[in-house]
Amino acid sequence: MRAHTQVGAARAAASTAGSMATGNEVDTTAKEPSQQALWQRIEATYSSAEARGAAYRTDTLVRVLRDLQDPRLRFVLRVATALRDKPKPPKASGQEGRPAVNPFLPYEEALWVAHLSPSHTLLLNKFNVVAHHLLVVTRAFEPQGTPLSAGDLSATWRVMQAMPHGGLAYFNCGEHSGASQPHKHTQIVPLPLAAVPPLLEAAADEATRGAGAAAWEPRAARALPFRCFCAALPEQEGAVTGKALAGAFQALHAAAFRDVCGEGSPSFNVLLTQRHMALVPRSREAWGPVAVNSMGYAGSLLVRSREELEYIEAEGPLCILTEVGQPW
Ligand code: AMP
């Protein structure tokens, strides 16, 4: 990964972006940007979308909380500065009588960053809690429930690599996973997450490198109280490809759902860092007032109400993650 100096190039990138065709138009001449240009483009688009009010930032204060069960584990609570008294009920996409609107097709032009490939494009997340929160979406509609493909993962990996300190990518899949949009998308946030390493990193290290597992080999992370399967990524330059990542996803999915013969599609979260891919099967979306998506398993919880804050402090984050996951 290259560390980028941000030499005022954002302005140059903005003007380059401005002169290019926007994402919803079909422009076969639009070139995909280089890695360094990509990060500059992300910064420039984010600044301009915030200034124009196209992207909304929820103001939060970061609190680091030690878990009750295991005080070695630290969680990042992002507590909304405007705490509501009651949490909002989870919103359904396509509410009664109203057709669901797909926010990714067409997407808002002000949120478009760049095309990553003929099949994938990069957008800013409209409702963000951390700066430069991104979405990799398919340019044509594909259901979120279809398996992560080499194309999804190579586009996602490319964006992670463009971030100065690397990125954390995630995929919420299924009705209990915390997903809200049915159009296929992965999400990426820049690391570090408030200086606390992603929760699963240490457990994944123990289950793979510590146990001498070969790169890509799926392992159960038994140190955690909930079911979690992970694979170490190889460290050699160029060894991580979209195809290899898709193979790892399939292996983790098979390990997690081998013995499952229930009805409907299983719900799960996938997390990807420079070092690991991890998959966590889910049983429910929320425990008490606390709704959880992949970010919860990265050790980061968004707190929007007093009730949620009190609940997390009383139960402990690990207990909540176990209840919405699947105990071993
Ligand atoms: P998920 O809830 O995991 O399915 O992720 C969908 C993401 O899309 C959420 O994080 C939303 O903040 C984001 N989102 C919702 N509407 C838009 C929009 N119009 N443009 C870009 N991102 C959006």
From TrEMBL:
Compositionally biased spans, kind Low complexity: 8-23
GO BP field: nucleotide metabolic process
UniProt cross-references to InterPro entries, sorted A to Z: Ap4A_phos1/2, Ap4A_phos1/2-like, Ap4A_phos1/2_N, ATP_adenylylTrfase_C, HIT-like_sf
Residues annotated as catalytic: 185 (nucleophile)
Compositional bias annotation for Polar residues: 25-34
Region (Disordered): 1-34
Gene3D superfamilies: 3.30.428.70
GO molecular function, one term: ATP:ADP adenylyltransferase activity
UniProt cross-references to PANTHER family, sorted A to Z: AP-4-A PHOSPHORYLASE II, PUTATIVE (AFU_ORTHOLOGUE AFUA_5G14690)-RELATED
Name the UniProt record assigns to this protein: ATP adenylyltransferase
Lineage: Eukaryota, Viridiplantae, Chlorophyta, core chlorophytes, Trebouxiophyceae
